[in-house]
């Protein structure tokens, strides 16, 4: 079963910045990655735990999914981050640079049954994506495309061709195990047109949403990963036509000159359910 919670936009917020943590309470993002890793300088890493814990204890994030990204367990901060994140009561803990299922086992020894997410950003992680996705505590994957591009020594291409093998392997693994999976960041946060193109590509590939580095990117991502009015209209008409044929017991359903089979009805119902979930999230979340 697919991950039903809306994850169109997943915004990184530094765990060390009280102002940013407060501002996030009013942003139209489906989920927040509260970052203790890349967005926090070395001299702020210890203090960031307390800052983030206070923000989460204060609350005000509504129905947004709250994910805490820790430092790797191979760093001096990782183990303490993991213990602190468990105590914060976030919805999930995100582990960076997961390369094997054993990495998640090591984290679970500290965090217990807290749901886990995995940053997929290493070549070995791509090759082990299926085993990682099968981990019993894993609920989602986040593509770390910047780190992956660095490790692969690729050149930047707008079509992301050098990254397609890795993206595809992780998508297959996530879908096979019913996990959420969100696309990597788009670095040029003032380039709405480029972001829209990359969001459309990710949506067409099957990603649930996109990780974002700036609030200015929220509207583009939310629009791209929401069902369009045309998609909703088609879904309703497909369901109606299929039900009419089933009731009459004759012929096959046809909509817009195309045969409608049961698999199309499954997709149509998922489309309508996603729209309902997005509306419910908007109603539950303060802005």
Task: Walk me through this protein's architecture.
By secondary structure, this protein is of the alpha/beta class. The protein has 2 domains: 9-224, Phosphoenolpyruvate-binding domains (TIM Barrel), CATH 3.20.20; 229-284, no CATH class. It has helices at residues 18-23, 45-58, 78-88, 101-111, 123-127, 129-133, 145-152, 164-176, 192-205, 218-224, 229-248, 262-284; strands spanning 9-14, 31-35, 65-69, 92-95, 116-120, 138-143, 180-183, 209-212, 253-255, 258-260. Strand 7 (180-183), helix 9 (192-205) and strand 8 form a beta-alpha-beta unit. It starts with 8 loop residues before the first strand and ends with a helix.
Layout of SSEs?
Layout: E1 9-14, H1 18-23, E2 31-35, H2 45-58, E3 65-69, H3 78-88, E4 92-95, H4 101-111, E5 116-120, H5 123-127, H6 129-133, E6 138-143, H7 145-152, H8 164-176, E7 180-183, H9 192-205, E8 209-212, H10 218-224, H11 229-248, E9 253-255, E10 258-260, H12 262-284
Parallel strand pairs: 1-2, 1-8, 2-3, 3-4, 4-5, 5-6, 6-7, 7-8
Antiparallel strand pairs: 9-10
What is the CA-based Rg, rounded?
20 Å
Q: Please indicate the percent range of residues in DSSP E strands (runs of 2 or more).
A: 15-25%
CATH topology category name of the largest domain: TIM Barrel
| CATH homologous superfamily title of the largest domain | Phosphoenolpyruvate-binding domains
User: Between the first and last Cα atoms, what is the distance in angstroms?
Assistant: 30 Å
Number of strands: 10
Q: Kindly provide the name of the CATH class of the largest domain.
A: Alpha Beta
Structural class of the secondary elements?
alpha/beta
Please list the strands of the largest sheet in the order they lie side by side.
1-2-3-4-5-6-7-8
| Tertiary shape | globular
Biggest beta sheet attributes: 8 strands, parallel, barrel
Mean pLDDT: 96
CATH-scheme architecture of the largest domain = Alpha-Beta Barrel
- Count, helices: 12
Counted up, domains total 2
Low-pLDDT parts are none
Order of helices and strands: EHEHEHEHEHHEHHEHEHHEEH
User: Which percent bin holds the helix content?
Assistant: 40-55%
């Amino acid at each position: 079963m697919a991950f039903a919670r809306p994850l169109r936009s997943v915004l990184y917020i530094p765990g060390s910045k009280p102002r940013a943590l407060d501002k996030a309470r009013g942003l139209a993002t489906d989920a927040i990655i509260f970052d203790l890793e890349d967005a926090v300088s070395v001299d702020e890493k210890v203090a960031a735990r307390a800052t983030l814990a206070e923000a989460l204890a204060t609350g005000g994030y509504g129905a947004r999914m709250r994910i805490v990204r820790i430092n790797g367990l191979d760093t001096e901060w990782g183990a303490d981050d993991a213990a602190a994140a468990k105590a914060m009561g976030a919805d999930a803990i995100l582990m960076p640079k997961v390369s094997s299922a054993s990495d998640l086992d090591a984290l679970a020894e500290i965090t217990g049954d807290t749901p886990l997410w995995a940053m997929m950003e290493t070549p070995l992680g791509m090759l082990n994506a299926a085993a990682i996705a099968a981990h019993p505590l894993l609920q989602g994957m986040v593509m770390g495309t910047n780190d992956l591009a660095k490790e692969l020594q690729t050149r930047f291409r707008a079509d992301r061709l050098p990254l397609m093998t890795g993206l595809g392997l992780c998508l297959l693994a996530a879908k096979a195990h019913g996990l959420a999976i969100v696309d990597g960041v788009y670095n040029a946060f003032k380039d709405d047109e480029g972001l829209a193109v990359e969001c459309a590509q990710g949506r067409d590939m099957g990603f649930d949403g996109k990780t974002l580095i700036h609030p200015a990117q929220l509207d583009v991502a939310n629009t791209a990963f929401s069902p369009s009015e045309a998609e909703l209209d088609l879904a309703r008409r497909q369901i109606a036509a299929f039900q009419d044929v089933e009731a009459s017991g004759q012929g096959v359903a046809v909509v817009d000159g195309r045969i409608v089979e049961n698999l199309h009805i499954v997709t149509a119902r998922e489309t309508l359910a996603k729209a309902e979930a997005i509306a419910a999230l908007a109603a539950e979340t303060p802005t």
